[in-house]
Fold:
Amino acid sequence: MTGRILVWDPPHVFEHEWRGRLSGDNVVRYELTADGEHATILDFTHRGLSVANTRGWVPGTHAFLDRLAAHLASEPLPDWNERHAEVAPAYT
Structure:
């Protein structure tokens, strides 16, 4: 993968290009917004994927974000492969 950082505004926004042989040219954006005093909303977008690539990337993104949520809650991390397999049928 290659790319450039497009937006760098810590701790609120990180946006970067994601260029790969299989994925093509994409843009990934992470945006954090306070939600009250003790919560934060993560707005994640991944633009530029083809429909075929989306079917593969979306379940993986779910698996990674589920692991992030568990980590932030100090809970055991779900197995990435198992979670991917659970989510993938919804995108086929």
About this structure: The two ends are 25 Å apart (CA to CA). The longest strand covers residues 24-34. Strands lie at 5-9, 13-20, 24-34, 40-47. The chain has two helices and four strands.
